[in-house]
Design goal:
The complex is a heterodimer of chains A (274) and B (267). With 274 residues, chain A is mainly alpha-helical. Helices cover 78% and strands 0% of the residues of chain A. The chains are: A mainly alpha (274), B alpha/beta (267).
């Protein structure tokens, strides 16, 4: 039978780039308009209504941000490192535990109900306890709470990925007389990667929350959570808001970094195709 | 020499106590193209998996290539093709075909050479770097066949490989499969519930009856080789189709097959 070769890449027609930029703008424009409208409403409507003291204007927050950017950025970096430490430990342990539970299913079946039950516990409430265990100034106390927060979503997603392989894929492996190690290496782990990344994305957000809330219960004065708490205690609301903006920026950057890694790692998968 | 020997093979599933297979005796000689046909639930797919040592029989003896089915599996004596292509999404066409070769520890150069041959054999040149989701169902199934044949196993097990494809693609792949069978001189065990497909492809059609799964009859297909489009118009072809249909009916499968006809799964 005849097989048509894939069509060669066609040269980009003139004006295509401009059109693509135009189409990009059309996609982004509504979101940008909403953002601008939101800021304007905050600046001239909500903030005067609520009182500039309790709800500072975006312009005041921006001024505070630019006046204190050196302190805030270094505090943001400090807290991001706390979050990253927890993320690496929590996600790393979760992936290892998921591999063990997927390999020995009986063990998994015995332990998973408890893992799911513990997942429903508001783990963030343990932050004062990890502070007490490791010491408020020791970053390990923030690693602990951020790590525990990251652990469950990564565990649950990874385990689902490792075990949701089609039975025929397993039969194919058995027909090759594959060992368990080979089944994991060539089938279960690659099949689980999209699930792992879903867990990791959720974990980035949780790690930042864990680190900042951990700071609230006591931490180094260089930490962002402590900066937020102190500025609110001193009624410097614009500074508090500016610190929150920095926390969000680090959180978003963290999330985007994981998504970018996912794009590279899963470039062959249908879910990431353009 | 016989490639597959089944003696008194019985399979009882513990859950529900279903008897999927009972007292199956069957010998398949080298180079034969044997189809297993029967209505849903007659155990034909189970029988294929018993031959492949993917399901252990409850009783009976299974010999593949002169050794136990288990040893044959460990020796990678067969390739298998499922109804779904079962390709790994994260691997390209080339890498999917390479999968068994990697597991057999073939060197990179030897793999590359064999993959080139296989891509040519199943006529997928130009699609080497495509991912499975970029291919049509028929092309995916050809990758699956190439993967099963890549390490030249003496036996090819096929479980309704074309069941999910449209009629046109199915007929075209039937022709391709016959060509590959002749070029590679392999032995094929082919599960189907299409009477026309079974007669067209096979040297022998094993008609099975359900509950418990038994061999009802064996119809020898004496159509001339190689089979061509003209074979489908041969009066002998129609006689054999009728023979298989009557054997199915005698096997108590008539109603089940009719149901499948109504469901549109049969030509």
């Amino acid at each position: 039978m005849n097989v048509t070769a894939p069509a060669a890449v066609e040269p980009v027609p003139r004006g295509a780039l401009a059109r693509r930029v135009g189409r990009g703008a059309a996609t982004w424009l509504p979101a940008v308009v909403v953002f601008a409208a939101g800021l304007a409403g905050w600046q001239w409507v909500f903030s005067p209504l609520a009182g500039k003291f309790l709800l500072p204007r975006p312009s005041a927050i921006a001024r505070s941000l630019s006046d204190n950017h050196h302190v805030l950025l270094s505090a943001g970096w400090f807290t991001f490192k706390e979050a990253l430490g927890g993320f690496v430990i929590g996600a790393g342990v979760a992936i290892l535990v998921a591999l063990v539970l997927a390999r020995w299913r009986r063990l998994g079946e015995a332990l998973m109900p408890y893992a799911i039950a513990v997942n429903a516990v508001p783990i963030i409430a343990f932050a004062p306890i990890t502070n007490a265990w490791f010491g408020v100034l020791n970053p390990h106390s923030k690693w602990a709470i951020a790590g525990v927060l990251c652990f469950f979503p990564v565990l649950v997603n990874t385990l689902r990925g490792l075990t949701s392989v089609a039975p025929e894929s397993i039969e194919l492996m058995r027909s090759y007389a594959a060992s368990q190690v080979e089944v994991f290496r060539r089938l279960r782990i690659p099949a689980a990667l999209p699930f792992v990344f879903t867990g990791l994305r959720v974990a980035t957000v949780l790690a930042m929350i864990g680190a900042i809330v951990g700071d609230y219960f006591g931490g180094s004065t260089r930490a962002l959570g402590v900066q937020i708490e102190n500025s609110i205690t001193l009624f410097d609301f614009p500074l508090g808001w500016a610190a929150i903006v920095v926390a969000s920026a680090f959180g978003i950057a963290f999330y985007v970094a994981v998504v970018a890694t996912e794009r590279v790692a899963l470039r062959g998968a249908p879910s990431t195709r353009d | 020499m016989s490639v597959v020997e089944l003696a008194g093979v019985t399979k009882r599933f513990e859950r529900g106590g279903t008897v999927a297979l009972e007292g199956i005796d069957l010998t398949i000689e080298t180079g034969e193209f044997t189809s297993l046909i029967g209505p849903s639930g007659c155990g034909k797919s189970t029988l294929l998996r018993v031959i492949g040592d993917l399901i252990p029989p409850t009783a009976g003896r299974v010999t593949v290539n002169g050794k136990s089915a288990h040893q044959a599996r460990l020796d990678r004596d067969y390739g298998i093709v499922f109804q779904n292509a079962v390709l790994y999404d994260w691997r390209t066409v080339t890498k999917n075909i390479a999968l068994p070769l990697e597991m057999l520890g073939w060197s990179r150069t030897r793999r590359a050479e064999r993959i080139r041959e296989m891509v040519e054999l199943v006529e997928l040149s130009g699609f080497e770097d495509h991912h499975p989701w970029q291919l049509s169902g028929g092309m995916q199934q050809r990758v699956s066949i190439a993967r099963a044949l890549s390490f030249s196993p003496p036996l090819l097990l096929m479980d309704e490989p074309f069941g999910a494809l449209d009629e046109m693609t199915r007929e075209r792949l039937n022709m391709e499969l016959l060509r590959i069978w002749q070029e590679t001189a392999s032995t094929i065990v082919f599960v189907t519930h299409s009477i026309a497909e079974a007669v067209f492809l096979s040297t022998r059609v094993v008609v099975m009856s359900p509950r418990p799964g038994r061999i009802a009859e064996i119809v020898d297909v004496d159509l001339a080789q190689p089979r061509t489009a003209a074979t489908r118009e041969d009066p002998r072809y129609f006689e054999l189709v009728t023979a298989v249909r009557e054997a199915l009916a005698r096997g108590g499968a008539a109603r089940a097959v009719e149901r499948e006809l109504v469901a549109g799964e049969e030509p």
